[in-house]
Amino acid sequence: MKSSFLPKALPVLCALFVVSCGDDPELVEKRDKQAVEISDLKGKVAMLQEKISKLPEDPKRELAEAQAMEKSQSEEIDALTKTIADLSARKLELEGELSSYRAKYKAE
């Protein structure tokens, strides 16, 4: 029975082989559409990567640096204000001593 089945099945197998070897037009069209879509998406990804690379750095770090600089400058301002107050007090003290000195030596 197998021998009579093989000659009858051979044309069917050949037909299936020929059909399976050729590309289905629907699948070819679908593959082409997908290839176009893939290239479009690759282009969009490339543009997004370029935009991302051009974004500024994280502003949190810059803010922290600015706050640290503001704090150090405030401390320096406070120190200079204290120095000015001390020098002003010393100036008044020396002016008082000068006035006393002048008054003492004018009288003599």
Textual characterization of the structure:
This protein has 108 residues and is mostly helical. It has two domains: 1-55; 58-108. The protein contains three helices and no strands. The protein has helices spanning 2-21, 25-54, 59-107. The radius of gyration is 47 Å and the shape is rod-shaped. The termini are far apart. 0% of the residues are buried. The mean pLDDT is 85.
**Roughly what is the average pLDDT, rounded to an integer?**
85
Class from secondary-structure proportions: mainly alpha
Low-confidence stretches: none
List the secondary-structure elements in sequence, H or E: HHH
The multimeric state of the shown protein is: single chain
| Total tally of structural domains | 2
Largest sheet: none
How large is the count of helical segments?
Answer: 3
Distance between the ends: 154 Å
Percent in helix: over 70%
| Rg over C-alpha atoms, rounded to the nearest angstrom | 47 Å
Q: What spatial form do the alpha-carbon principal axes imply?
A: rod-shaped
Strand content: under 5%
Number of strands: 0
Helix/strand layout:
Blueprint (H helix, E strand, L loop, with lengths): L1 H20 L3 H30 L4 H49 L1
Describe, in short, the structure shown.
The chain is mostly helical and 108 residues long. The chain has helices at residues 2-21, 25-54, 59-107.
Structural descriptors:
single chain, 108 residues, mainly alpha, 3 helices, 0% strand, rod-shaped
